[in-house]
Specification:
The complex is a heterodimer of chains A (238) and B (340). Helices cover 40% and strands 17% of the residues of chain A. Chain A is α/β, with parallel strands linked by helices and 238 residues long. With 340 residues, chain B is an alpha/beta fold. Chain B starts with a strand and ends in an 8-residue tail after the last strand. Classes of the chains: A alpha/beta (238), B alpha/beta (340). At the A-B interface, α1, β2, α2, β6 and β9 of A face α6, β9 and β10 of B.
């Protein structure tokens, strides 16, 4: 089984990057080929996020899966990701026949709520006097700018349209879920999506501070969560 | 302009992205007499830099005709670890020197401008001291000494700020609730990476090092943000190192409103303009555009994926042993250390 890890968005991408490297290395050490990749307009990849489309990013996940199947002897795929990456993995799994497992790490499942949370967090960040010598005003930011990344309104609209009731795990045999304390509400919702998949849940006692304006530059370090993912993947492969 | 993955280092363990100008000339002629610019990763932040600052800068510089490499230091981002026995600080310097070796071989250039933020700025400085190929340093929130005037300009606005007082009170109450504990506990791995949290060089050493850089005619652009907490007025750097004769080799910029990582796009644009203009003024003959901006067409098409993949395959030799530790989940991506 090959693994494709989808990154979160914006500042959460930077916060999560090290955990993704560690998770990928440890899965690779167990024999799983793993690809992490930057979407168009993010990380080191080409382009500007202002030109990004959610549907194009979904196509990129499909491209990466094909790339992995082409380069490694794998017949099935686990798609995974943290936050927005988890949502993208869920959506992509519905398009990819080889997808058999999901790794959902504090996944975003309600796009509208997520965008509103980001807006509130951005507003609080502007008033954070540990970060700025003086509070900054909203009019010093560009339209659609949220914690370091400026999104087009079209993209935010697409993101807001992410509907938890439209998500499905049909065709998925196994789903690994890592939930932190601040995201516990999503687990019951995700369980409702259960269409026969085996769930391997893990309640992390960590609070990653997703809604804390003072922690937006903090790296996510959660070895226990990574251990849960790797041992679950090992069990699935066995 | 082209952009490609660049693997280099003694064990090909270092990973970067090289942006090349599109002059059509052979690679060794593209650099001409111009230096190449190297962006050094900062703290735990990997090579795109904070909010893709280094991506934007690299692409802008390549469009101006300057080759630019952004890369991850050993153990950061996509770079593995190779050597043992060196301190984290010296290992970082060796990484940068290997980056210069690699570009010298590929581009034919023997002159380099090193750019870094926070710990990356310190690594740029340390490398410049040790390697005569460095002709310029762009340091963002690098070494700084708190002068007596620092305290005046730092605390005066706070005394009259109601919000600051509320903030101060809230933080003290929170500390009481936490029993005086700070909720930051690093893993040994993070401690090893965060060498910049330890004691740094003292003022006398820095004075001596800056003097030696000046004797070698190394140009410096020292940039400070208000959010760094170490700089509170425009002339602080010159006051702190007033016995160094920088002459025309030093430029200092202070962005009092910006935070340490330039989270606001407007602040990042000002920073980008400052750096590209300075590089253009000192290392290019042509004029730098007012607002350097590369139009990036939405050209991704299904027949050629544009993503930048980072593969951890089953043959990866960089599997870590961090699973035995579950101490920390609270490490700043780019921390600061203070010099008094």
């Amino acid at each position: 089984m090959g693994v494709v890890l989808c990154y979160p968005l914006g500042h959460e991408y930077f916060r999560a990057h090290r955990s993704y490297v560690k998770c990928a290395e440890q899965l690779a050490a167990l024999g799983f080929p793993v690809i992490r990749f930057d979407y168009f307009g993010s990380g080191d990849s080409e382009g500007d996020i202002g030109h990004a489309r959610l549907d194009d990013w979904l196509s990129e996940v499909t491209d990466v899966v094909e790339e992995l199947k082409h380069s490694e002897p794998v017949s099935s795929i686990a798609l995974g990701g943290m936050r927005f990456g988890g949502a993208l993995a869920l959506l992509a799994a519905q398009r990819i026949d080889a997808a058999r497992a999901l790794i959902l790490w504090d996944p975003v499942i309600d796009g509208g709520r997520y965008v509103n949370d980001l807006r509130r967090l951005h507003a609080r960040m502007l008033r954070d006097l540990e970060r700025f010598a003086r509070a900054r005003h909203a009019d010093e930011c560009g339209e659609g700018e949220l914690i370091g990344t400026r999104y087009r309104s079209r993209f935010l609209h697409e993101l807001s349209g992410l509907d938890p009731h439209a998500l499905s795990v049909a065709g998925i045999d196994d789903a690994i879920l890592v939930n932190t304390t601040a995201n516990a509400a999503s687990e019951s919702l995700l369980r409702r999506l259960n269409n026969g998949a085996r769930w391997n849940g893990f309640e992390s006692q960590r609070d990653y501070g997703w809604s804390d304006a003072r922690r937006t530059t903090e790296a996510i370090m959660d070895p226990e969560a990574i251990r849960h993912i790797t041992t679950s993947m090992n069990a699935i492969a066995a | 302009m082209s952009e490609q993955l660049h693997r280099f280092g003694s064990d090909a363990h270092l990973c970067g992205v090289l942006n090349m100008p599109s002059s059509g000339a052979p690679i060794d002629e593209q650099s001409g007499g111009r230096p190449a610019v190297i962006f050094i990763s900062a703290g735990l932040l990997h090579k795109p830099g904070p909010f893709r600052l280094y991506v934007e800068l690299s692409r802008t510089l390549a469009a101006m005709g300057i080759p630019a490499l952004r890369f991850d230091l050993s153990g950061i981002g996509e770079s593995g670890r190779s050597r043992t026995g060196e301190s984290a600080e010296q290992s970082s310097v060796t990484d940068v020197r290997e980056a210069m070796d690699s570009l010298a071989e590929e581009l034919g250039t023997q002159r380099f401008v090193l750019t870094g933020l926070c710990s990356g700025a310190e690594v740029a400085h340390r490398t410049a001291i040790q390697d005569s190929r460095v002709c310029g340093v762009v340091a963002m929130d690098g070494y700084m000494i708190r002068t007596p005037a620092y305290y005046w300009w730092h605390y005066l606005p706070r005394v009259f700020s109601a919000r600051k007082w509320l903030d101060f009170t809230a933080s003290r109450l929170q500390r009481l609730r936490d029993g005086g504990r700070r909720n930051i506990e690093n893993t040994p791995e993070e401690d090893a990476l965060a060498f910049w949290e330890g004691p740094g060089p003292d003022r006398d050493q820095l004075v001596s090092e800056f003097q030696s850089l000046c004797q070698r005619h190394v140009r410096q652009l020292q940039i400070f943000s208000g959010g760094s907490g170490d700089c509170s007025y425009e002339n602080q750097f010159k006051d702190a190192f007033k016995d160094v004769d920088f002459g025309e080799l030093l430029d200092v910029r202070f962005f009092p409103e910006a935070d340490h990582l330039y989270v606001l796009q407007s602040d990042r644009r000002r920073l980008l303009r400052t750096i590209t203009r300075w590089l253009g003024q000192h290392f290019l003959s042509e004029t730098v555009p007012e607002s350097p901006r590369i139009p990036v067409p939405r050209s991704r098409q299904a027949e050629h994926p544009v993503f930048m993949p980072n593969v951890s395959s089953s043959i990866s030799n960089s599997a870590s042993n961090t699973t035995s530790s579950n101490l920390s989940h609270s490490v700043k991506l780019a921390g600061r250390r203070h010099f008094e």
